UniProtKB/TrEMBL annotation:
<protein>
    <submittedName>
        <fullName>ROK family protein</fullName>
    </submittedName>
</protein>
<dbReference type="Pfam" id="PF00480">
    <property type="entry name" value="ROK"/>
</dbReference>
<dbReference type="InterPro" id="IPR000600">
    <property type="entry name" value="ROK"/>
</dbReference>
<comment type="similarity">
    <text>Belongs to the ROK (NagC/XylR) family.</text>
</comment>
<dbReference type="InterPro" id="IPR043129">
    <property type="entry name" value="ATPase_NBD"/>
</dbReference>
Length: 295
């Protein structure tokens, strides 16, 4: 069964065609997010029309998704007027095939569960480190959503109450543990270090290594809280910076000494699917949508 999949982010839309064995015709283009939810849906239709012969559609998207009807429960101003958009209904009416819609981090977690680093697990936490810090809670092989589809928003953990103010996420985990935070710290020393790759390439400089080590401490602080709350067997960590072996190994070294012996044994896994995790999660959800439709 061929499935067309989109991963809609605030800056880019990734897409591909699942052929039953592999993801083909992979593409990426800038998101027309600032033009609003209506324009974004037109862009989604344009991309999907460029694929041929698909029998279902899977959508991974920014924003809180009401999985009962495939609509956007809430989206911030990164995509104006996206809240309330009936994504599933719009695309099913346009293409006359089953459509599944899921939040992008939840979709990434499902991608890792069925095709990546979490294969064979039934319970784990998934965190992604990028512009912010996103999270997903997987219990008994499914996503735990909370009362308003917002569960897993680990970026909101308060780690520095002394810095709390009126701004969103002031004093919270993502202000210190995101890739954005790492870049901000590095640029205060060297303005040319404006992305993660450049920062890790400069790790031979003692000042930069010290910044990276301080940032890894910040990453670990949030994980301490999550380990004590959920007592997971596994933490799956994704995002470009988590592909760095130094980061993963240092987290594995530092975390055990900061958590209760009663939580011992938690495993740190690096996400395996990279920026295709959301697409692969969308594949799985579309397959489920087809089964549920009886087609």
């Amino acid at each position: 069964m061929n499935i067309a999949v989109l991963d809609i982010g605030g800056t880019a839309v990734k897409s591909g065609l699942w052929t039953g064995e592999s993801l083909e015709e992979k593409r990426e283009e800038a998101t027309h997010a600032r033009e609003g939810g209506g324009r974004l849906m037109e862009q989604a239709k344009e991309i999907l029309r460029s694929y041929r012969g698909f029998e279902a559609i899977g959508i991974s998207t920014a924003g809180q998704v009401d999985t009962r009807d495939g609509s956007i429960f809430y989206a911030n101003d990164n995509i104006p007027d996206y809240t309330g958009t009936q994504v599933k209904k719009i695309l099913e009416e346009e293409f006359q095939v089953p459509v599944a819609v899921e939040n992008d981090v939840n979709a990434a977690a499902l991608g890792e569960l069925y095709y990546g680093a979490a294969k064979g697990l039934s319970d784990f936490l998934c965190l992604t480190y990028g512009t912010g810090v996103g999270g997903a809670i997987v219990i008994n092989g499914g996503i735990y959503y909370g009362s308003s589809f917002f569960a897993g928003s680990f970026g909101g953990i308060v780690v520095h109450p002394e810095d709390m103010g009126q701004g969103e996420f002031d004093g919270c985990y993502e202000k210190y543990a995101s890739t954005t935070a790492l870049v901000r710290m590095a640029k205060s020393v060297d303005a040319s270090l404006d992305n993660g790759k450049k920062i890790f390439a400069a790790m031979n400089r003692p000042q930069i290594k010290e910044i990276v080590d301080r940032w890894i401490d910040e990453v670990t602080y949030g994980l301490v809280s999550l380990v004590h709350i959920f007592n997971p067997s596994d933490l799956v960590l994704g995002g470009g910076v988590m592909a760095q072996q130094y980061v993963a190994e240092e987290i594995r070294k530092r975390l055990p000494g900061r958590i209760s012996p009663g939580t011992a044994g938690v495993r740190i896994r690096q996400a395996a699917l990279g920026n295709q995790a959301g697409l692969m999660g969308a594949v799985h959800l579309a397959q489920e949508a087809v089964r549920n439709s009886g087609k």
